[in-house]
Structure formats: structure tokens, C-alpha cells
Amino acid sequence: MRGLIKLFVMQFKLYLREPVAFFFSLAYPTLLLLLFGFIYGNTPAPAFWGRDFGTVDASVPAYAGIIIGTVALMGIPIDTAANRENGVLRRYRATPLRPAVYLVASVAMYLVVALLGMAILVVTGKLVFGLRIAGSWLDVLAAFVLCALAFYSVGYLVASLAPTARLAQVVGMVVFFPMMFLSGAGLPLQLLPESLRRVSDFLPLTYVVRLLQGLWFGDAWSKLWLPVLVLVGILAVGAIASARLFRWE
Amino acid sequence: MQSQDVIEVEGLRKRYGPVAAVDGISFRVHAGEIFGMVGPNGSGKTTSIECIEGLRQKDEGAVRVLGLDPLRDACMLRERTGIQLQSSSLPNRMRVEEALDLFASFYRQADDWRPLLEDLGLSDKRRAFFNQLSGGQKQRLFVALALINRPEIVFLDELTTGLDPQARHATWDLIRHIRERGTTVFLTTHFMEEAERLCDRVAILDLGRILALDTPTNLVDQLGMATRITFQLNGHNRLFLDRESKGLPWNVFNPSLIGVLDGVRRVEQEGDGVVVYGQGDGLVVGVIKSLEAADIPFNNFRTEQANLEDVFLALTGRAIRN
After folding, report:
1. Is B316 contained in some domain?
2. Residues B175 and B249 in one domain
3. What is the structure's pLDDT at B322?
4. Which of A1, A151, A152, B219 gives the lowest tally of CB atoms within 10 Å of its CB?
5. Contact criterion met (CB < 8 Å) for A96 and B75
6. Are A114 and A75 in contact (CB under 8 A)?
7. pLDDT at B239 over 80
8. Chain A within 8 Å of B103 (Cβ-Cβ)?
9. What is the pLDDT of residues A87-144, one digit of tens each?
């Protein structure tokens, strides 16, 4: 237990010492929000959103998808594969530390990183644009954790399958960047042509955005059964697969 | 001497595809000794040590470490052993003191790491990031991590590779110091000199097999040519000048003159250069006396002691560096 906590704290410190990772997961979505918030403002636009919310109100839950996606598909695969490649994981393996403890500490650390990124986003939205939410914070938080864990399990799967850190980075980027723009996370789906919008149904990140935006706008969980089902499915398959395939070296 | 075996290896085999990296080795390591496995790169040292540490699955054979199975009882064994790996690393932005504090927390019982830092000369590097350390400092940090649980056995794989001679000598002192604390040391190296100066017993490994296992002194003695004498004939020494000034001819050297002496194993002559292999206390005096008695002028007389490099050469027919 002492090892778990120390490892968690250490991993978190190491994360904060990497300026690029720090920027992408913590600062980038907030900068996007500021940029588009100043361009479009946050006046309610029912014609566009179908409800009484403005661009910033809708963007915050969508950008949560960017935060989860960058941590899961860029941060986790690259860090894990690099640590394996340069022998950091070997060094841990030569101690009594169990793989499960290492994974729990890492997942917890990435979860805190994502929550921190989300907190900065929400606080900025509130202070600068008077962010509105119709649903419950607790529901959004629970959904955020579910989405993050589901995507992290995929991130560890990529890390386990990629033979090198460089390849993990390429795979992560190839999977993440198109998904960011086609899932409604980076920009509203309403801006896309019909044909591209159909692609979004096949992208996991789309369900993150639908779930978080739905709860944000005040929908009941029962109305969001499809995204919940998809994400729980991803979590189950990803967790089992990455636990089986995880390797120290 | 009554000593207990802390490592028992019997018929250990490990193959990668068709190649047998370790081809049926057996040996025991006694408690409290510095045991060395030497051999050229690719001789199977690292595969052997990793099978014994429980970091690698063996194909055949029996391995017991402290009476435990290295794979099945891995967790229990890790608590009682320390491992320094040939290739491993720490995150670049981890500080020295953070690494020690973190790794100490992985063990049920861990030493206070501050004196360890002092012993290893890393006190002034406490706050340094891992990637700010020199090669030698990184190695010392890894040694500290391997010692943090006060292990009964410490495994050191190619510890001094890549270190400059000064750092290497400092590391040897450190290893002797570890042994004095009562820890058994199992190390691998491809430096014969290191094995000779440091190890109580040495296993010479080549192509996955143990060619010889004994104390360095015994290994060299078994060669039967612990001493090598070289000299030059027809040197313009005092004897030569004496005879020349008197108009006397000098005698011709015949290798059998020396070959018959006690303890001489072999005499080689190439032009004016002569090499004598042999052993025994009277060897050097005997050679000089018979040269003088036969009025053979010589100079550049040198003696060298054979070492493990010569042992390896004699066992394999090739030098270890190639």
C-alpha cells in the first residue's frame, strides 16, 4: 500500500515535469475554449444546439473528450512504451513490486491528470464565460471517470501491442487526431457534412461526447443507455486484453 | 571450511530458437563469497544470471536461490535479493533521493537509504535528476537500489562496463565492502582482470558452457605456466662485450638448455627472442643461472605472471577480446 501511494505520487510529479504532456492534457483544451469562446461567445443558441445553451456550455463537455483522448491515446501509450523500451519497467520488475500495483498507481495518476485538466477547463469557463450546466455535477463526474477508464484500457492495449515507443506514438496520433475532429469533441458535429457525421457513429470518442454532453444538458442516464453500453463494453474488453497482454519488457 | 550454498544450479538450459544460449550449466555459490561468471559477450552470462534471478524462464534444469524457486517464489525472493541489471533505466526527471525513497517503499524491510547514499558517494547528487548523472553515478545509484533491502544475495550484471578505470577501481572497493556486510555477491563480467582481482571463485563461460570453475589462483596454476619469461639473445651486455674484447666467440643458444630445467613447460624461440613458460619458485633463478653458466649473452630479461586471460586463451584457443 505504501508502495502504491509513493508510486502514484512519484508518477504524478514526473508527469508535471514533462512540459509537453502537461500542456496537451492540461492547457490545450482550455486554450481552445478561450479561443472559440471569444469568437462565438456563450449566448444561448437553441437553433444550433437544440437547447438553451451557448457554444462554451456545449464545448466544455465535448472538450472533456479531448482531455480523455490525449491522456489515453497519447500519454499512456507513449509513456508506457518508452518506459518499457528504455528499461524503466525492467528496473521495477527486479523489485517485489507487483504489476497490478504498478498499473493501479499509473491509472490513478492519469485519472487525476485528466480530472485536473477538466477542473481547469470548467473553472475557466465559469470565470470567463459564465458556464451553465443543467445536469448534476456528480453525474458528469461519474461519467467522466467511466469514459476515462474505458479509454485508458485502450491506451494500455496500444502500449502493450506497440513494439516501440515511436510506433506507439504514431498509432496513438493516427487513432486520436481524426477521431478528435469526427467525434464532436474538437468541433460540433453539426458543422460536418452528413456523410462524415455517419462515420462518427463508429468512433468510440463520439460516445464519450454524447454521454457527457447529454448529462451536462440534463438528460437522464436512461436516455443515454447506448453510450454507457458502448463505453462499459470497451472498458471490459480493453481491461481484460491489456491485463493479459501487459509486459514489463 | 564449512559453508552453506545460497545458489544451486543444476543442468540449466535456455535456448533462443535453435541457439542454446545456456547449454547445461551446474554450479553452487557459497554464502558470503564473491562469485564471478566471466566470458566474452554472447557467452550466456546475462541469460544465466537472469534465469537465476527469476527474470527469465529457463527451459531445463533446476535452480534454487536461498532454497526458493526463482520464478514461483519470485515475490518472496525479491525481498531477500538485490538485482542490478545490465540494461535498465529510471525516468529522466526522477531525482536520486526520490528513486531511493520510492524503491525502499517496495520492500517490507528496507534500509535507511541515507547512509547508503553516503557510502556510494552520491550525497551531493541527492537532488540531481537521473539524466543529469554521469555513467558511473548512474551505476552507483543502481547499486544503491540493489542494496536498499539489505539483501542476502546481490546480483551485479556487467556492473563496470562503460566505466573509466578509476571508476572501475572504486566499484571494486565497493563490492568488497558489500561482501564485508555479509552479502553474497554474484557478478558477471567480461573483464578478466576484474574477475581475477575481485572474485573468490570464478566460472569461465563460453558458448553457454562452463569451461572451468575455481579460484583465480588455482585456475592460473592449473595452466602449468603461471610464469612467462622473455629475453633477447646476443644482446650487447657485459658478458658479450667481455668476450668480444678478448676475441672469444660466444656460445650458440639451444632451447633444450632451458627446456630441461625443473618447472619449465615450453620454450619458444623466434630469431633472437625467447619465451619460456613454466612455474615454480626456482624457475627464474634457474633460467638465469643456466644462461650464465653456458656463457649465453642475453638482455631484456622480463618475467610476467599469467592471468585469467591466458587461462581463457588456453581453454578456448582464442583471446577474450575478439
Report:
1. no
2. no
3. 43
4. A1
5. yes
6. no
7. no
8. yes
9. 999 999 999 998 889 999 999 999 999 999 999 999 999 999 999 999 999 999 999 9
Tell how far CA B49 is from the center of its chain: 15
- Of residues B234 and B306, more confidence is placed in B306
pLDDT of residue B249: 67
User: Are residues B163 and B233 located together in one domain of the fold?
Assistant: no
- A44-64 confidence digits (pLDDT tens): 888 787 788 899 999 999 999
Looking at beta carbons, which residues of chain B come within 8 Å of A83? 91
Same domain, B171 and B282: no
Calpha distance B192→A39 (Å, rounded): 72
Q: Are residues B25 and B141 in the same domain?
A: yes
Of A17, A90, A97, the CB nearest to B85: A90
- Three cell numbers, residue B10: 543444476
Domain that includes residue B140, residue range: 5-219
Q: Which site among A10, A13, A91 would you substitute to test the B interface, given the most B Cβ atoms closer than 10 Å to its Cβ?
A: A91
Instruction: Return the residue of B nearest to A99 by Cα.
Output: B75
Counting the structural domains of chain B, the total is 2
Q: Could you tell me the CA-to-CA distances from A137 to A134, A140, A144 in Å, in that order?
A: 9, 5, 10
- Laid out side by side, the sheet with B60-65 consists of B19-30, B5-16, B60-65
3-state DSSP call for residue B153? strand
Locate the domains of chain A by residue range: 2-245
pLDDT band at B253 (very low <50, low <70, confident <90, very high): confident
Domain boundary residue among B199, B219, B239? B219
B-facing residues of A in 78-107 (CB < 8 A) are: 83, 86-88, 90-91, 93-98
Could you tell me if residue B322 is inside a domain? Answer: no
- pLDDT of B2: 44
**Which set of grid coordinates corresponds to residue A109?**
495518476
Same domain for B109 and B202, yes or no, is: yes
Residues 172-231 of chain B whose Cβ lies under 8 A from any Cβ of chain A = none
Task: Specify the higher pLDDT residue, B135 or A33.
Answer: A33
Which residues make Cβ contacts (< 8 Å) with residue B240, sequence separation at least 6? B234, B250, B297
Over range B101-128, report the average pLDDT: 90
A70 to chain B, minimum CA–CA distance in Å? 21
Same domain, B125 and B242: no
Q: What integer pLDDT is reported at residue B236 of this predicted model?
A: 58
| Model confidence at A19: pLDDT above 90 | no
CB atoms within 10 A of CB A221: 15
Residue A186: count of CB within 10 angstroms of its CB: 20
Tell me the shortest Cα–Cα distance from B31 to chain A, in angstroms. Answer: 21
Q: Are residues B237 and B196 in the same domain?
A: no
Kindly report the nearest CA distance between residue B108 and chain A, in angstroms: 9
Q: Single out the residue of B164, B211, B197 nearest to residue B39, CA to CA.
A: B211
Residue in chain B nearest A102 by alpha carbon: B106
In this structure, what CATH number is given to the domain that contains residue B272?
A: 3.30.70.100
Determine the average pLDDT of the residues in A82-89. Answer: 92
Choose one of B196, B219, B242: the last residue of a domain. B219
User: Residue A53 corresponds to which cell in the numbers above?
Assistant: 445553451
B84, B89, B127: which to substitute to probe chain A, counting the most A Cβ within 10 Å? B89
Q: Can you give the CATH number for the domain in which B127 is found?
A: 3.40.50.300
